Amino acid sequence: MDLLQNVAQWAWIGWLVLMLIFLVIEMLTLDLTFLMLSIGGLAGLGSDLLGAPLWLQVILAAAVAAVLLLALRPPLLKRLHRSSDSSPSNVDALLGLEGRVLATVSTFAGQVKLANGDIWTARSDGRGEIEPGTPVRVARIDGATAYVRPRPEELPE
After folding, report:
1. In whole angstroms, what separates CA 18 from the centre of its chain?
2. Which residues contact 64 (CB under 8 A, 6 or more apart)?
3. Tell me: the pLDDT tens digits for 133-154?
4. What are the pLDDT digits (tens) for 91-100?
5. Which residue in 31, 34, 41, 32 sits closest to 64, CA to CA?
6. CA dihedral defined by 44, 49, 55, 60, rounded to 10 degrees?
7. Distance from C-alpha of 7 to C-alpha of 19, rounded to nearest angstrom
8. Which residues pair with 113 in a beta bridge?
């Protein structure tokens, strides 16, 4: 019984250490999960300072953390990520980009100038040879080679 009284008497130190650990982990993960757990620890610390028994402190800390995780964290994450740029970049930005053939494009070689001004080594995407000046669209990228096909409105009938 003496050990339990000592633990209850010094519980506030445990709550502070737990909160600090959770805050450090939160700074490393930036996921808001450990922030909510740390606030739950703050509720446990507050109930300890008000003289609540240890079992009640643990229940209050867990309840506050659970409510925050379920009710507050999702809208905060949604608000945090709402301004993230969803436009494609790198290779994804080139897919579907239009351009013009500079040197005859076959299944083995060729060269195109894309609408963004880049000149790429190109290959035909299984449609035979494409003559210089033909408008094309990028179908896929493999390494430093653009696989192109004639634009649909330019296909011979």
Report:
1. 28
2. 39, 40, 43
3. 999 999 999 988 999 999 876 4
4. 888 888 999 9
5. 41
6. -30
7. 17
8. 100, 119
